[in-house]
Amino acid sequence: MTSTQQPLKPTDVITLDQGGSRKQFISARREGSDELAIFDAFKPGSSTVVAQMAFGGLGFHDAACARMGGVEWPMFWLQGDVCPGVHVAGVQSFAMEGRPVRRVMLSNRVVGSFWSDEDADYCLLAGLLPADPTADRSAQTLSSFEQMEAGLKEVGMDFSHVVRTWFYLDELLDWYDEFNVARTAFFEARGVFDRLIPASTGIGASNPAGAAVASGALAIRPRHDRVHIQEVESPLQNPATEYRSSFSRAVEMAFPDRRVLTISGTASIAPDGKTVHQDDVVKQIQLTLDVIEGILKSRGMDWQNTTRAVAYFHDIAELPTFDAICRERGIPPLPVAPAHATVCRADLLFEMELDAVLAVPASGKA
């Protein structure tokens, strides 16, 4: 497997060539007065778009889809709870060449993509919505998990194959505790605590359907015993389950030729679960980067192994602050999509999720 980065500011393209297939992670941020120009990087071409995330005003949704020539792939469109909706902040896409991709359909909507290689079967679900967006929020949360299961069933998979989830909750601060109770109840009912607890991101953002939650998941089903999937602990934070939030800090998927690390949404939280550096966005960004770097290094990786990241800002005007901190720390330019959204606590001003890949040489050691 080989990896290349093509910085096309304001668009970053990370390309992974692997066994006759090519994967591209495209991360872009808005630049200039044309709110829709950012979508020019995502028009269908030789690659199949597996899934896409767009962070910006809901009012841009239809025009953006038209600008991309029609969206036939699963998509998250999200307007953060604190976003006024007058801008598009960032967009991210995962595309593939060289392997057939099957769409996953529910209720005549494309909600996922399924593909396979010699190591595993993969299903990426995005933009899932509860069956009844008028139901109470706990019921919508349960329905979101049921929709995940229904999508996975379409390709012969189930929730035991899920390694990562995303949840975007409308007015998150009003009911995040309620969401966590519902998620924990589902995990208990499905025996999740007896096996791998997925990595996850939970952010405050609304969706075009007006549902209480939009969700997604990545599921992997190994094809042989040389694929190993495991939870990765954070050297600087205790498990989130210790403060009643049911997700892993990170999950690693080890394949014969590569190791893939997916890091959950990470914020300025102490080992005891309390917020650190209240009202100080600079120190919160610094600690968040410390925590992510600690996880990367614990797996023999560093920032240059990043394939995609999303940075969530309570105040999107702090994006230049984040860029400056990265430069000061010597962090190379990262493929980051910025998002203007509420983090899971009122006193948290920044959160970041990140994926990284490390090639494994033929000796099997990396």
List the secondary-structure elements in sequence, H or E.
EEEEHEEEEEHEHEEEEEHEHEE
CATH topology (fold) name of the largest domain:
60s Ribosomal Protein L30, Chain: A
Total helices: the number is 5
**Which blocks of ≥5 consecutive residues have pLDDT under 50?**
none
* Overall shape: globular
Q: CATH superfamily of the largest domain, please?
A: RutC-like
CATH architecture designation of the largest domain: 2-Layer Sandwich
**Text of the CATH class of the largest domain:** Alpha Beta
Total E-strand runs? 18
Query: Strand pairing plus helix content: what structural class?
Result: alpha+beta
Total number of distinct structural domains: 3
The amount of beta strand, in percent, is 35-45%
Mean pLDDT: 94
Q: Determine the N-to-C terminus distance.
A: 13 Å
User: Strand sequence of the main sheet, in spatial order?
Assistant: 1-2-3-6-4-5-11-10-12-9-8-7
Helix content: 10-25%
Folded structure, characterized:
With 366 residues, this protein is α+β, with helices and mostly antiparallel strands. The protein is built from 5 helices and 18 strands. The protein has a 12-stranded mixed β-sheet. Strands 13-14-15-18-16-17 form a 6-stranded mixed β-sheet, covered by helices on one side. β14 and β15 form a beta hairpin. The model has no long low-confidence stretch (mean pLDDT 94).
Give a quick summary of the entry.
The protein is of the alpha+beta class.
Question: Could you outline the blueprint of secondary structure elements for this entry?
Answer:
Blueprint: E1 2-8, E2 11-18, E3 21-29, E4 48-56, H1 61-67, E5 75-80, E6 88-97, E7 102-106, E8 109-116, E9 120-128, H2 137-153, E10 162-169, H3 172-190, E11 199-206, E12 213-222, E13 228-232, E14 250-255, E15 258-266, H4 281-298, E16 306-313, H5 319-328, E17 336-340, E18 350-359
Parallel strand pairs: 4-5, 10-11, 16-17
Antiparallel strand pairs: 1-2, 2-3, 3-6, 4-6, 5-11, 7-8, 8-9, 9-12, 10-12, 13-14, 14-15, 15-18, 16-18
Helix pairs in contact: 2-3
